[in-house]
Amino acid sequence: MSWQVVAKRRLLDPYRSRYLWVVLAVTVLLFGGGVHMATRPGLVSMLRSLGALFVSLLAIASSYRTIAEPHQTGSLRVVLSYPNSRRDVVVGTAVGRSLYVVGIISVGYLVAGAISLVTLGADSLLSVAIVWFAAVLFGVSLTVLAVGVSAASRTVNRAAIASFTFVLLFFGGWNLLLQGIRYVLNGFSTPQPPQPGWVDVFVALNPMHAFVHLVQTLHPTQTLVYESSVHTTTWFGILVLVCWALVPATIGGWLFERRDL
Amino acid sequence: MTAIELDSLRKQFDDIVALRDVDLTVQSGEVFGLLGPNGAGKSTMIDVVLDYVRPTAGTATVFGLDAQQQTKAVHRRVGVLPDAYHLDGHLSARTHVEFAIESMDADDDSDALLDRVGLGSVTDRLVRGFSKGMEQRLALALALVGEPELLILDEPSTGLDPNGARRMRTIIHEECDRGATVFFSSHILGQVQAVCDRVGILVDGTVVAVDSIGGLQETVGTAETLRITLDSQPGETIESVRQLPDVRNVSVSDGVVSVSCPARQKVAVIDTLRQNATVLDIETREVSLDELFATYTGADG
């Protein structure tokens, strides 16, 4: 199974570069500083906001180059000269980079846990662990998404533009898109309340929302703000994250396998 | 046994036809040189065999395995020095070789391999600081990992100094003695002559000739260029020279007659010219690759 060889290389690659120390320093500062300033009631929302911003940028920034760059430079011609299939390269890269991203996220939340233990007490650890768990799922989802985008792209530039377009889409673009769709469906005029039922489902399909929502449904002290239905369950949130990983990766892998290097 | 077999292989990029229905057979155990000018389609041919590029039509097989369908099985038996490769600057030479060993599921000693290509003293240096020649040596070491049955080397002597080129030839001979088949491309005639058993000549996406090295040398020998300096204009004797069999590319400028002809016709050419003028000087020049291609394609270059 040679995707494991590729995964190992992709996991270890960052450890050979000085860039890793910068990422670690930023992680420790962000999470350490953030939690240090947080109050007990504000801890979860602090960790969640940190997670949403930090995890999405980390996952995308450390993965969008992973296949497009070796494709463009020609190092893929060396990797593929061994008995590694193109699928091995995509799967191995997705696994290796996901482990790396999970490692960095875990460092961040470990630092958060250590500081909250001192400043806020032992009962804050559960909150940290829950946000960490959701952040890991979110991080893996966006990492695999970015690897898929990278596999679909012929150049690093295109991969960068496409990946960061996704980030913008998840941050604010999703609402704009929603409003655009409603405007069009409403016969090109501003929609009036009440909003149709599918709007909540559409909102729930945003992986950023899925992450925030996961934290909420998993956290025992937090009361549900949504009325209960399929798209407000924990499993629906996880399913959304899985789909955002697998659909782009499958399409990207499919395009990559059919392309001339 | 057949190492590589190309059957009506055709590759068309948007508006360029890189390979035009190429048929080629490389026997197991031979050193086969693919000779051709830049842009002839050599790298495209190799890229199809490695499945870096998919053919428009036709098939490529390696040891009877389909290059496009059974890619992994093919690559288990092949060592590759590809064209337009890139080595990762932040990794050491040793790390590159170790990745290759792991990928090939081999048990080579990375230090011994690097020593063999002349990089024994820089095994732990980052590739970032390597010269083109050192990168090429490392790429050769990567191709040798796992004692592959077939070595595919695309322009292996690119960037090598004379020592490096000699080492490359020695390694090719050693690999061949071990029983490996070697298939390599080059646009330099001398290299091909030095190591090959057989040569294929690729021009503009078409294999115009496949010849033994003896046959190639005969052709090379018969296509020398003669430059004859005369004391006066040759006059009508130049037409007589043009009538001689196998004499081509006859031209005159400032009393210097330039002629491509086989060795056996040299004397006839000079005798003909002496009928009208005195010969002051005779120079012979070895055939250039362009002239060789012209000889094989039958075009007057």
From TrEMBL, chain A:
One of its GO terms (cellular component) is plasma membrane. Keywords: Membrane, Transmembrane, Transmembrane helix. The chain crosses the membrane at residues 20-38, 50-68, 89-112, 124-147, 159-177, 235-256. GO terms for molecular function: ABC-type transporter activity. This is ABC transporter permease. The lineage of its organism: Archaea, Methanobacteriati, Methanobacteriota, Stenosarchaea group, Halobacteria.
Automatic annotation (TrEMBL), chain B:
The keyword Translocase does not apply. Pfam families: ABC_tran. One of its GO terms (molecular function) is ATP binding. Residues 4-229 form the ABC transporter domain. Keywords: ATP-binding, Nucleotide-binding, Transport. Belongs to the ABC transporter superfamily. PANTHER family: ABC TRANSPORTER, ATP-BINDING PROTEIN. This is ABC transporter ATP-binding protein. It comes from Halocatena pleomorpha.
